[in-house]
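Render 22alpha-hydroxysteroid 23-monooxygenase in 3D.
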Amino acid sequence: MNPKPPRVTAYDLVVGIYSQREHHKQDMAWMIVTGVIICFITSLCWWLLRENNKKKKKKVVRKGKVPEGRWGWPIIGETLDFIASGYTSQPQPLTFLEKRKSMYGNVFKTSILGSSVIVSTEVEVNKVVLMNQGNMFVPAYPKSIRELMGEHSILHMNGTLHRKMHALIGGFLRSPHLKARITTDIERAVKQCLATWTSHQSIYVQDQVKMITFSVLVKVLMSVGAGEELKLLKKEFEEFIKGLICLPLKFPGTRLYKSLKAKERMVKIVKRIIEERKKKKKEKVSNEEEKDVVDVVLGNEWNPELTMEMMSSNIIEMMIPGEETLPTAMTIALFFLSNSPLALSKLREENMQLKRQKSSSPNSSDEYAWTDYMSLQFTQNVISETLRMANIVNGIWRKAVKDVEIKGYLIPKGWCVMASLTSVHLDSNNYENPFKFDPWRWEKIGAAASNNCFTPFGGGQRLCPGLELSRLELSIFLHHLVTTYRWVAETDEIIYFPTVKMKRKLPISVEPINA
């Protein structure tokens, strides 16, 4: 027997209909809320995507593009081509740069010495690289140089400490009282060196002039005169400088290891000199005139960060011009003059005239002031032309601390940029007949210091602080050489890697002018 279905009352019908309506309202509400949320999220995503695309477009327009170029072989890049071009003789020493410049333009990318590099051969780009320091670029050097110079090197200094150190030393080296005093020391060193030259032997100029420049510079830095201490410093420095460009391998027997050991021995000598000077300064009540760089640094204890280690290390670094850059400039000046009889004749005539004036004037002794040498205009032109044609520092390396745009070129953060000074100096767009030694061109160009196409001493905050002293020493050397000897140079050529120098050290034979 089937059970009877439950009895549905009118009340039950009303309740059921009401419940269905409530459920329907809840479902509709949830649907509306869900729809609103979906619309909101969709709108938000669309807005964010649109803004992101706008930023990307702005970013691309603002940044420009990485210069064209090529990377070369894996790991070594184009290093072998770069090095090989450094051994190319005159008059085309820029084969690596010129070849890529013709293919990719004045600014191009490459991979050399283990780094991704943007190479600039353009004046305006180089100017920005040299002038902007710290906020855009920091110094960058091959690993062997970084290892050799160490963490306390002035090459790694930035910001306030570097500016103060640079200004302090630069101000001293440019000061008239130093020039007045050091002129006599330079003259003495030049005359002593030239007095050893005889007509019965080959004289290797590059070796000879190092005897002049190193002794003078050590005198300026630490007041170390002739004697065993100077000989020991020179011996250790010669060992130290050999590791400037080498494989960055630092274990016994390697070139870098030997150079670092030589530096350790030099640091001990320099530290002792500084400590002795510091002790003497404390014992004396009166303030004496600063006679060298050690006095300048000790007399201006403006920063507790400047430790004994930093002072010693940087004094050693400042010896480099006395062993490398300045002797090379002197040697190459002779090389160019040997092949330019008209320029040599004009130079000798100007310097002979000064010599006659000094010896014939009843109101003056035969002693020269530093202003006498710097007043020799054609001599200064010869120096400028020498530095233009054989720039001793052929390129300045920097590293971008952020993405940098210059004239539409992008230098990505972390990449190196090499501002090629030599390529600018030997560009026919900047100089007429750039491979011709022509000191007369500077009569038309005017003051070298104001010429953006002439940067042999770098630029910006890291402009060489000793540039005026270098010109003075070159002037004194050329004056006494051309008024004392005639010479004939043997065949030689300039090489450009790892640094600029003469292949055979420029052998010459001399004859005294009065003979």
